[in-house]
Amino acid sequence: MYNYLDFEKPVAELETRITELKTTMGETGSVDVKDEIAGLETRAKDALRDLYKSLTPWQKAQVARHPDRPHCVDFVKTLIDDFTPLAGDRKFAEDEAVISGFGRFRGQSVCVLGQEKGNDTESRLKRNFGMARPEGYRKAVRLIELAERFAIPVITFVDTTGAYPGMGAEERGQAEAIARSTQACLNLSTPLVSVIIGEGGSGGAIALATANRVYMLEHAIYSVISPEGAASILWHDSARAKDAATGMRITAQDLSELKVIDGVVPEPVGGAHRNPEQTIARTGDQIDAALRDLAGDGRDLKQERRDKFLAIGRNI
Question: What is the number of alpha carbons within 13 Å of residue 63 lying toward its C-beta?
């Protein structure tokens, strides 16, 4: 049974009825029930397809935050062979919000970085809900520099509401750590490919997404601030997050049109959480194509990356 979002109520009612009828069919073996199930399945499939064809930005934000969406750990487990995690920033501590290490992607050595929110209470607390502290970004810098040293491409999976805003994090130089991570991405002379798999929130996201190629899953969001944060600032009312999301142009489709990102990875009908395996496979194919396209001189890769981000403001 899926965790249905509020706007999915019509589909939820149909699929709940289907489940009930299947239970009845198992008990009675009625052919009439079987025919009714087939009709309801068609209606549910059509309703889901129609619903996801016209999602509003706020609805997309809800899908991007769905608890059952594939997380960074799922992408790493499926796409990266022989993954060897590396921990710690060699300055203060380990940050569990940032997954980091080296492995092989379809036979090629890669450095992998990603933000992990966790999928239950225990793991969410351990991962700090995907909100990295300075140590997480300094760890990222450490691995990016290792990748540079050994001429290894970097893949990042972005999924965070933003960097952790706690007092301790600010005291330890959160803004400086984010800036250093962004700088390390810009200075990298190997290919850097980033995929926003859920939320791409503010500087906490850009610190890992200053890449040669930036892709978003179809129903992911990417913004300088969360809709709730924007609503609080603009109207002093976080309940107007829906209005903020509509005006901020945070969807993959908007950002592709604005040339902030390089492409959109299609999700299955109903969102990535309905078929994580297919979503991850499509993402892997997109990363593979990007890495093949980026094979070239390190100086050109670095210059292309810088030009790409300088052009964003000019295009807008």
Answer: 29
